[in-house]
Amino acid sequence: MKPFVLLATRAEDQPADEEYALFLRGTGLDERDLVRVRLEAGPMPRLDLDGLSGIFVGGGPFNASDPPERKSPVQHRVEAEFAALLDEVVARDFPFLGACYGVGTLGAHQGALIDDRYAEKIGVVPVTLTDAGAADPLLAGLPETFNAFVGHKEAIRALPPSATLLGSSPTCPVQVFRVGSNVYATQFHPELDLEGIIVRIRAYASYGYFADDELEVTLAAAARAVVSEPSRMLGTFVERYAR
Question: Which domains does the chain possess?
Fold first, then answer.
């Protein structure tokens, strides 16, 4: 089988390693078949799409909607690398699934309006599929409404005509969308389970995803929710595109 690749941007080792472990578990792949590239550590290597089965993108610290002067040199580099990669991915309709930061990369590439209007604190939201989402093969078998973990400072306010909306939540109208037939992005985190969200909450407690005095409340709210469906998307992605 040709490998999949996970493009990651988390600078902190613990959540970065936990994210990789979650993608390994959700996809059912081993480290040989899911190659991680940490973009915050160095330039994106040349990715030969003919030698890959598909591309995953994890979450990260970058906001596409930040003004240019507030973006670090690393963020400018990563955004330029994603723009070049997505030129080829979209043109070829190559299998791509971006989680959370995937919305910023794919959305920005397609000209979506991205800002902080629909930001969501770290927590759990109900995602409801559109008719197109219910019919989409990547979401096959998911209930019409399911719980998912979120936590983001920006979101898509308006999708461009090139994108198909597949799912929404009450507080964020674009939770998952598709471009072409095989290029996907989610605002929620399909890879996360309870253990994983606890690691994220603690690791990013001072990053502004919730108020300074809300740590224990946020942990308790995450523990009460049942989130079991989104990770199925990772296995379905592999089943569809492994070659």
Answer: 4-241 (3.40.50.880)
